[in-house]
């Protein structure tokens, strides 16, 4: 935003050369911050250590007000130095803008720095006298000024956002003010920030114990499949393995999928069926005397739209011929995304197509990575830019303009949308930047990845157990808001240490031994944790490890969910 000026006309008599900033350049700088925020960059505050003029009342006419207002709407604070003129009742512009956070300077003993502007337009004080600051020459020097104080506030807001990620920027600024030390001068009091008090001022909100909605439910409890009676010509006793669905509204989808892993010699003996909560039977695999290969590792899709989604689903396995036995090692019931647009829409030449999908029944914020699948054809794909907008107007660029030739674009993008509301209307904007090319958006969909394992596993006394689920085929990387739901029952909850193990083998502590969580002593423990999985691979095995660190008690892990 700054430029070198070599004229005394701008710098003042005998003061050239100097470094100054045009107001128009400041606006462009703030507009860049605004664009980055809209594009998904996690920005909390923009610092402006500059200003001029003398203002005793709010300056509604300042040309920077519109963009400062716009940033506040996007939950970004514009933190502005009050100025170093020593005014007792005024600040410099743009600190006079009502939506800015205007900062004055104090000394180490909480006195107003003599040079600091102050008065009714001042929002906060921060240390600004004798501050160790970086200077040219790759070194440091002691500096004074409200330009030293303002960055303290911008940094404090970033720390508070990390501490209280669900709080809006207005709330965080208010928290800085209400937890601060009061500084009184000339009949006015302005708070001096105290970050240590601010980070402990809000009582931590309890994590929700409602289980997140899952789109894949696993059961990896081994189930033996009885062999058919020898020489009887009749099938063996069917074996079943259940999973329970409880968060999926309405009926099951047309492409409900069962993923099955069975060890069995001569797999043609096996008949597989899926039983709905109402007892309706869907044939997955018929027996076949000609299929003599071993083992069943397969996925089967059925139209289950005539059955309710919620309730107990069962995989039923029947051995129809004698001579071989086997067992089920794991199976999953997979609900594909219900949030999709399948109607083809034309992409206007040198225009923008806006296509919408309505999302409901997803509690809280969206996913990281949210899965955005697009299917389009175009005579010049490089002319296209794809941007996704959330229900609360967060924007995510999926594809920038490029140089690709014409053809088909079927791609799944993974974006960190954990700061965006899940429920509501999502919009995919496809913009054609150049004339002479045409195409169609064939369809698109949104996926909120969530994986659950319902296998009940014993927690051995003074030992550990692990329960796992596998994410596969996802695009993108992890975010800082991975949700991990844990359901444990134990005779001594305080004895348990619980960790999440990511696909790369890294450990992420959830519960330390010596804490009982939501209960004391013996009981049921249900809790959703938030884990920082930034940049971790999402595909692979996610494991929950539960350690019993003290002898004398036992229990079970009942449920484990990973929601991205």
Tell me about this structure.
With 564 residues, the chain is mainly beta. It is 11% helix and 41% strand. The chain has 6 helices and 39 strands. Helix 4 (146-163) crosses helix 5. Residues 204-208 and 516-520 have low confidence and may be disordered.
Mean pLDDT: 91
- What distance separates the N and C termini? 38 Å
Shape: elongated
List unreliable stretches of 5+ residues. 204-208, 516-520
Which range best describes the helical content: under 10%, 10-25%, 25-40%, 40-55%, 55-70% or over 70%? 10-25%
Q: How large a portion of the residues is in β-strands, by DSSP E?
A: 35-45%
Task: Find the count of extended strands (DSSP E, 2+ residues).
Answer: 39
Largest sheet: 10 strands, mixed
What structural class is derived from the secondary structure elements? mainly beta
Number of helices: 6
- Radius of gyration, whole Å: 31 Å
